[in-house]
Amino acid sequence: MKVGDTIEVDGVVGRIVTVDIRASTVLGFDGVETVIPNSMFLENKVTNWTHTNASLRRTVKIGVAYGSPLTRVRDILVECAHEHDLIMKNPAPEALLDDFGDSSLVFILYFWIDYSSAVNPLIVASDLRFMIDTRFGEEQIVFAFPQCDIHLDRSQSFRVQMVPSPAVP
């Protein structure tokens, strides 16, 4: 590990800013500096996100309503990723139908970024979400929302009553 590497150890994620004899300082993404005893790097699992390669694969998960045009959803997700300047062209972004969820068809957009101090993965993911929202709106693709089907036992009668809402002053 060296100054500038982005690491994760013992729940702390950030960029190493100093390495001293007994401890190292990690600057977290939230601006908090954490002093970590160097023994932690030997005794715990350490993930170095940028040790030999600064390319990181990131994801954005999207749920669309059942009945949506699936191939068009996939194509829009990939197009949005291609339009973002900070997303790498190689490897190319991919959108996969991940699951038939309870209330949505779940897609995952996979994309790669060249991670540096100038690139914030959270902002890239947020940008993508704004782009996707705009494109879905243009094409009347509906984001899913939680739904619940209620099945009533019709073997017994039940009473339905409409009650007016109270007047609002």
Describe it.
This protein has 169 residues and is α+β, with helices and mostly antiparallel strands. The protein has 3 helices and 8 strands, in the order ββββαββαββα. Strands 4-3-2-1-5 form a 5-stranded antiparallel beta sheet. Strands 6-8-7 form a 3-stranded antiparallel beta sheet, covered by helices on one side. It is elongated, with a radius of gyration of 24 Å.
Q: Would you count the extended β strands for me? A: 8
> What percentage of amino acids are in beta strands?
25-35%
Structural class: alpha+beta
Strand order of the largest sheet: 4-3-2-1-5
Note the total helix count: 3
Biggest pleated sheet: 5 strands, antiparallel
Radius of gyration: 24 Å
Order of helices and strands: EEEEHEEHEEH
Q: What percent of the residues sit in helical stretches (DSSP H or I)?
A: 10-25%
Alpha-carbon distance between the two ends: 65 Å
- Chain-averaged pLDDT: 91
Shape: elongated
Describe the oligomeric state of these chains in a short phrase: single chain
Low-confidence stretches: none
Give a quick summary of the entry.
With 169 residues, the protein is of the alpha+beta class. The chain contains three helices and eight strands. α2 crosses α3.
Write the layout of secondary structure elements.
Blueprint: E1 6-9, E2 12-19, E3 23-28, E4 33-37, H1 38-43, E5 46-48, E6 55-64, H2 70-83, E7 94-100, E8 105-114, H3 121-138
Antiparallel strand pairs: 1-2, 1-5, 2-3, 3-4, 6-8, 7-8
List keywords for this structure.
169 residues; alpha+beta; five-stranded antiparallel β-sheet; three-stranded antiparallel β-sheet; 22% helix; elongated
